[in-house]
Amino acid sequence: MSGELKKEQVLAIIKNKGNAKEKLLSILLAIQEASGWNYVDKEWAKLVATELEIPLTKVYDVLTFYAMFSTEPRGKYVIEICKSAPCHVAKADSAVQMFTEELGIKMGETTANNLFTLQYTSCFGACDLAPVVKIGEKVYGHLTREKVAEIIKTYREGSRCLK
Amino acid sequence: MSKIMPLISANCGKISPASVEDYVRAGGFSGLQKALKMPPTQIINEVKKAKLRGRGGAGYPAGSKWQQLYEIKHFPKYIVCNADEGEPGTFKDKLLLEKDPLRVIEGMTIAGYVFNAHDGYIYIRGEYAALQDDFQAAIDSAVRAGYLGDKILGTDYSYHLHIMTGAGAYVCGENSAMLNSIEGKVGRPRVKPPHLAEVGLFQQPTLVNNVESFANIPTIMQIGGEKYLSYGTVDSGGTKLICLSGNVANPGVYEVPFGLTLRDLIYDEELGGGPSGQKKIKFFHLGGQSGPCGFLSQLDTPYCYQALRDKGLSVGSGAIVVMDESVCVIDYLKAVTEFFIHESCGKCTPCREGNKQIYALLDKFAQGTASKEDYALLQRLSTLLAKASFCGLGQAAATALSTCLKNLQAEFDAHIEGRCPAGVCFTKQESGEQ
Ligand SMILES: Cc1cc2nc3c(=O)[nH]c(=O)nc-3n(C[C@H](O)[C@H](O)[C@H](O)COP(=O)(O)O)c2cc1C
Ligand code: SF4
Ligand code: FES
Q1: A107 touches chain B (CB under 8 A)
Q2: Looking at A35, A65, A95, which one is the last position of a domain?
Q3: Same domain assignment for residues A39 and A91
Q4: Which domain holds residue A30?
Q5: Considering the entire predicted model, what is its pTM?
Q6: What ipTM does this complex have?
Q7: Does B166 touch chain A (CB under 8 A)?
Q8: What is the maximum alpha-carbon separation in chain A?
C-alpha cells in the first residue's frame, strides 16, 4: 500500500501539535489524515505512546472510543452518510441507495480500487441540508441522483490528477 | 413586525469573520471594554439580571453558575467553551463559530476576566475540523489587535485561548466527559460531586458554558441585564437560536425572542413556513434527540423555559425537528434509539443494555409482532433509563420514547393490530402480496 507514513513524518506531526498528553486526539487525527488511507497504524500508535510517555493501551483506548478513528486502512475518501433521525426523516435511506448503487458496494465496504469507503455517521450539524454526506471536511447536501454521480466523478478525476 | 430578532446573530454573514476591524465597526469588543472597568461581582449581577440560561441543553441559570465559581477561592481557574454540538438537529453553534467567532472569543474573555483566569479552552467537535483553522485565525487577529493575549487593552489582565478538538463522540458534550477529553483521555463522564466548579479541568475550578451562552455575554454587557431580559419572557431572558429541520419548508437557524409560540416557530412564513410537502405535520422533536417530542395540541405553548416545562417539553439545545404524516413514530424512535446505542459510552448497564432492549422492542412493533405487554415494557424501560443511568445521556435517551408512548398510543396500538398508519412498516409483506 502506497502513501505509508515514515517515522520522521509521524515525529514531525507530534512536534507540530505539541508533545503533550492533551494533544493526543489532535495528533492522532493529524496522523490519520496524513496516512492517505484514513487510519492510524499500530506502529504509529506505538510511536505516539513512546513519545508522549503514555501506555499503548491508553492510545488504543482513545482510538477505539472515538468514532472518527480507524485502526484499519480505509478508502482514500471516506464517504460518511448521516443517519441520525433528522436526516432519516429527510430520506437518508435514499442517499444510501444512491451511493451504494453508484459505487457498487454496500455500507461499510471499500471499493476494489481503495478509492472510496462508505460508512454511516451520526449527525454532523448539517441537518438543514438533509440528506447529507461528508467527505473529509467537505459537506454535500440536498442530494439527488445527479449530484451523487457528479460528486463521485469529481473525486475519481481528482485522484487521477494527483497521480 | 418581524418575528426574527437578531441580537447575537446580527453580524452573521455581514462581516468578515476573522476581521477585528469589521467586528469593532459593528460594535464588537465594546462589551469587553466596559467589563474591564467593572468589578467582577457587578458583571455577574448583570448576567443574573439578564436571566440568561445555559444554551447547551440543560438550561442552568448562567448567573448562578458564575456566582458559585466566583465564591471558590482557589486558583488557577479555567474557562471552557463547549463547542461539541452533538445533538442531532442542532447546528446553531456552528453558525456562530463560523460567522462571528470574535463574539464567542469576546464572551469567553469577559468570563476569563471575571474569574481572573489566564487560560480558556474551546472544545470544538472533530466533525467541525474545517472550522477550527478559521477560529484560530480569529484568535490570532484578536491577539494582534490587543483584545486577547498579554495585557489586554493595556490593562494588567492576560488571557490566552486554546482550541481543543473532539474526535466523534456525542457523550463528550457532557461537561465532565468533555474535560476528560480535553485532557487527552477517553471521554467518559466523571462522578459528580465534586462539581466542576470545584474540581474541573486539570483538577482546577472550571467554568463550562456553551458557545451560544458565551456569545450572549458581550450583548448583556453592552445593553445591560435588564434590557436583555426584556427581549424575552419573565423567566427566560433574551433570544434563542433555534434550528429547524426535518419535514419543514424553511429549515435553518433563526434567532427569535423567547415567548413566541411553537406554532409561530413552525408555521410562520418568516420561520419554519409549515410542512415541506403536501402532508400535514404529525409531531415535532424539541431540543435534540435527548429532548421530548411535542404534539399538535401543544402548538400554542410559548417557547420559553418555564412554559415548555409546564407542558413536559423543553428548549434544550434549540433544535426543532418537524415530522409530517409520512413519518411512522415507531420508525422514527428506532432511529433515535440507534443513535443512543451508538453513542452510549458503555460505562453503566441501564444505558448500555437498556437502549438495545428498547430497540428490540420497537423492532417488534415494526415487524407487527408486538403485544400489549411490549407496550408496558417500553414504558417501564423508559422510566428505568431516566432513573438509573449514570449520566445525562442515558437519563434522557428515552425521553422522546416516553412522550410518544403517551401521546401517540393509538399508533402503537395500530402496530399491535398489524397496521402501520404511515405505511412505513410491514412494507415487505404488503409488496409481496401485490
Ligand atoms: C450526553 C450529553 C451531551 C451534551 N452535549 C452538549 C453539547 O454538545 N454542547 C453543549 O453545549 N452542551 C452539551 N451538554 C450539556 C453540558 O453538559 C453542559 O450542561 C453545558 O455545556 C453547560 O453550558 P451552558 O450552561 O452554557 O448550557 C450535553 C450534556 C449531556 C448529558
Ligand atoms: S448513561 Fe452510562 S453508559 Fe450511558 S453515556 Fe452515560 S455513563 Fe455512559
Ligand atoms: S441529522 Fe444529519 S446532519 Fe444532522
Answers
A1: no
A2: A65
A3: no
A4: 2-65
A5: 0.96
A6: 0.96
A7: yes
A8: 50
